[in-house]
Amino acid sequence: GASGRIILRSDDRAVLFEVQSRRVIGELTAPKIKNVVWSPDGSKVALLCKYGVVIANRQLEQLCSISDTVRIKSGAWDVSPSGGTNSNLFVYTTLHHVKYCLPTGDTGTIRTLDNPIYATRVVKDSLFCLDREARSRVISIDTTEARFKLALANKKYGQVMHMVKHSRLCGRAIVAYLQSKGFPEVALHFVRDPQTRFRLALACGNIEAAMESAFSLEQQQGADGKSRDVWGELGSEALRQGNHQVVEMSYQRKKDFDRLSFLYMLTGDNEKLRKMLKISNMRNDIMGRYHNALLLGDAAERVAVLEASGNLPLAYISANLHGLDDAAERIKVAIETQEGSVEGLLEKVPVGTKKGGRLLQPPTPIIRASNWPTHEIKKTTLEDLSAADAGDEYEEEAPAAAPADTRAADGAAAWDDDFGMDDGGAGIGGDDDFDLGDDDMGWGDDLDGLGDIGGDDVTSDQVDDMAAFNEISSDVGFQMPPAGRPAAACWVANSSHAADHMAAGGASSAMQLLHRQIATSDFSKLKGPMLGCYLGSTVSLPGVPGSGSMIVPLMRNDAAAHPGNDSLPRTSLTMKSLVTGVRMGYKYFQTGKFNEAKNSFTEVLSQIPLTVSENRNQANEMKEMVSICREYITAIRIKEAITAAGGDPVRSTELSAYFTHCNLQPVHLLLALRSAMGTAFKHKNFIVAASFARRLLELPDMRSERNADLRMKATKVLQRSEQMARNEHTLNYKENAAFSIDCKDLVPVYTGEESVRCSYSGSVYKGTAMKGQVDVTDGFSTVGVETIGLVTGK
Fold this sequence. Notes:
The chain is α+β, with helices and mostly antiparallel strands. The protein has 30 helices and 20 strands. A hairpin with a 5-residue loop joins strand 4 (about 35-40) and strand 5.
């Protein structure tokens, strides 16, 4: 493909290696490679394997791969100067066939062979090759099918329509191919069988063509039998498009009276619905009469149908409920004549209750037009080209090669450069094809426009006959507007925040994000906030009577205008709710309700990962809240441990000391220092008691008059402790050393000691015993996992 690169092969793959930089450009899987053939322009390469062909680009990125049950003998790229197949059509041979392969992955068989051959060159419909005796031959091939598929894949619709008109393209294989590629309208131009045309017309939504085929099938098959199924399928497609006129005709020809009545009711055509009532009466169809009477809302007709069918009690009840007194009296006489009685009949109908009888009236159609409103569109490119007479000036260029199966004397003289292949070696293996492709690309990409250098018979002023068709772009004609994306899909695509994914209903992706960002492993604690995000992102609006509610997404970035595909959901958790939770925790802590305070801070910790910040300041505040919640939860756990260790003076004094090193609010730190000072002085640990007294006296709140008594007590404790100047016990506490508190064992972790940390809450644990365990502070993150940390915005 380019100078300075070579392809290396192994048993199961090929590697593109750049010699100068000594690096691998690309590699792909290709087992048992026999030969490599480069396209004339160097843009593609075909790797011939033992039982398959792999086509790749110049970077050795795979475009397609095909397999065969017979060994591949040889292959060559098409070098035709016109037709658009140059470097896009690869022809290869097997033991008994000549086949083709396109970069799109389409394959096919061109012709059969009596004896094996080895392809060297392909020009239009001529295959230059060598037989097993190393004699040059030229074989005629028909590449119409390959050129048709290539033009269709490249959206060269002009060339496609010309080939449809002037080539012998037929057969079920081509029709099936066009349907699979989404071009049934192309097959309509050359298919003549009414049944096949009918299927194709339905596939492309062409109601007019489907009607023509349906009439033809009806003439062939008669009014009964399969023709009714054809009209039923046509009616279904017409109903899908809202073409009620065709639906009506289809139902009439199929004699589907029930659907026809329902259609008239939907379109509000009461006149025709009354005709259907008369038809059902003429056909003695009791159920049909009753259904049409229901659809018309004709109570008198319903009573008459019930009376005619012998259901006199029902007829009497219906006549009474609808106020038809004359009919009720007449039916009463008929019942009594048959030795019956009407007493108690009306009592069986609980009128006025939910289970009682109700007036049945058909809904009133809002739109009474015959057909749905449609948008007038331009003709498609294929329809425009089929209407134009574009094929008269086109003539197939006669191949310059000799007739089929001629020997080398005249045919090979047209391209003398191929005799250079025999100089390199008399073999007919894959190396010859590789050398040919490499010689074409000796000067790099600058020779791409020259095509094949051996084409002496192609003059410089030759014109591509298909150029006029190729200039037609693929965007000619009507283009359907792109379908809008649902709000949930936009939310997932626009954000990496777990709350946005959860609001879109993506619980799995939300949990994956939380696991990757903050190492969440136990989602039971986050169930409430996650469900809140999902339920709070939409609002349900009631619709018109008889219809369901409408789900409307709520967006947080639609203040100025609708954000379109950039929309983001509005979540139920906000910064205000977090601040409220923290303040409630402060209030409970201040009043000594430690369990309630712990629950408040824990709830805030579980809400923060599912709260979206609006700006950088809020993001910083949220991260600060995580630290606040951690410190207060740790302080409350220490307070609980102090109560549990009341009989142990050493442990209670140590815990009181650790309590004062939690990062609390000044008013709360005052309470912690007062408690620690009292505990240390009580247990005669005067050194730490003096330390706590000094820290207490240094607090700004101690200067107020409300703390005058506490200031006096702290002064006395300090004086007494300085006099005694000893600790009764040896404590695991160094006042002047920096340390963190182990959130599980509640012991100090000094700087330099081995420890692990939670990536979300920041809790520290001494040693590595807690690595891989759930954090004690937040209850859902894994300790010791290094992650990106808390994500606060989209």
